[in-house]
Amino acid sequence: MKVNIKVKNGAKAVACVAIACTVGFGLVGNANAATAPATKADSEQLILGSGSTELRVTKGTASKTVTAQSSQLAAAATTPSATANTLVLYDTGGQWGKLGELYAMNVANLTGHFGAFTARPVSTYTAGQMNNFTATIYIGSTYDEALPGVFLTDVATSTKPVIWMNHNIWQLTANTPDFQSKYGFMPWFYDNVAVSKVSYKGRDLTRSSDNAAGIMSYSAMDASKATVLASAVRSDGTSSPWAVRSGNLTYIGEIPFAYVNETDRQLIFADLLFDALAPATPERHRALVRIEDVGPDSDPAELRAIADYLSSQNVPFSFGVFPRFRNPNGIENNGVAEEYTLKQRPEVVAALRYMTSKGGTMLMHGWTHQLTGAANPYDGLSGNDFEFFAAHVDANDRVILDGPVPGDSVAWATGRINSSKRDFQRAKLPVPTIFEFPHYAGSAADYKAVRSMFTTRYERSLYFYGGLSGTIDNRTFVGQLFPYTVNDIYGSKVLPENLGNYEPEAYNHHPARHPADLVASAQANLIVRDGFASFFYHPFLGTEALAEIVTGIKAAGYTFVSPASL
Ligand SMILES: [Zn+2]
Prior knowledge:
The protein is α/β, with parallel strands linked by helices. A hairpin with a 2-residue loop joins β12 (about 240-245) and β13 (about 250).
């Protein structure tokens, strides 16, 4: 029985989380910034965060002059119900200038939950520009990037919300003689004391111990004028402000996108955006569950058991399907290659119809969920390998993403998706309207192809340098997970997956992840006032752990909804 592959072959059981749990990348800046802001940091370097090595950021050179293509992207990202319009400003200078655009994509995507965005280098800012937007977010990623005087003046005089992250706040205080008396606080220097927790709304969010970057400290904090929104908690239990607000200015003393995971302090930023862009948003907590890696080789009985359990709990769900199974190397089949489609497995097709009847929404999870007979990165077996991106396992047993596959293009990806559609149609199944990349990975061209064929993706995603400025560098990218639906820089609606999945055993440096871990992540995500607890689950793991997770998420206060309702 082919279904036993999933039990015998560890890679099969765990492969789909090669990316899922670990999207993110690490940045350490200002390794010697104790004297900042008076002294320029002498060391900035990219390093890869623990467990985050799938998504590597290639060291870049100084970024080129950026042209604004983003207004078109912004238009594509507008939704009728979300009316905010955000200006995202980023740095471009210095050795690590490329980071500015990567962070700006992170920010722009999140603001895509609230409406349109325009992302530009801060160097292009023109006087009065921020008054045309609901709010402005500036990401200070380059130490001592020269900020336009009109920008500094507008921040100090505009009444529109401004969120400022990390560097160069000292240029604002220098340009605003009454800064301390007006705002009630004064940034001082980057404190490099280890901080592993950030407290917000009575909950502790995590901060990676690998993150050696400092967090801004303050020489003055007048509680009558400034509000500390979140506090960095040191190992000795003392704390210092992590984010502070006074009037229309919110300042965050670091960039919260380095070394992220499911319980990271980046969630605080995701929630603070509501204050700036949709302050009337009521508290609401919804949950999603997706059954993963369903294919022609799935066990119909397992699928029916999952559907029965979830419907018995009144839990709507989704299931990601690849319609063609390939095993070119004959893994667990005496070396004999095999290939078959859903049409050739009518019991599986019947089970998929049954899942739909029990509240399931079928998604397209690629075509074959592998690429060729060559390892990408495992063994060429459907469900194990990447389909739209090249990857290998390195000598340290880490999965490394290599870039676009040979022959990659919009036309290639479109052809592959059309092949998938045909295999659904041949099985007399409806063609899914939501797409999920196998292993959450595709090139910029592949995302473009999906955008032209689907309105919605449901996943974590990769964003490539040039996504805002126009010339894509497929080897410099960042991954991102979302706590709520967004309209991203590709112009797609993206449904969130932010808890990962049940993973009984560690592999490729990804830790095991138990039901309690997923529930704890769901609890951390409660700080997002209108956020989700969204996880996925492999059907061959049975229903016991699934029940633990569903019960725990419900007890945390979430209500399960169908992705079709979003
Ligand atoms: Zn998968």
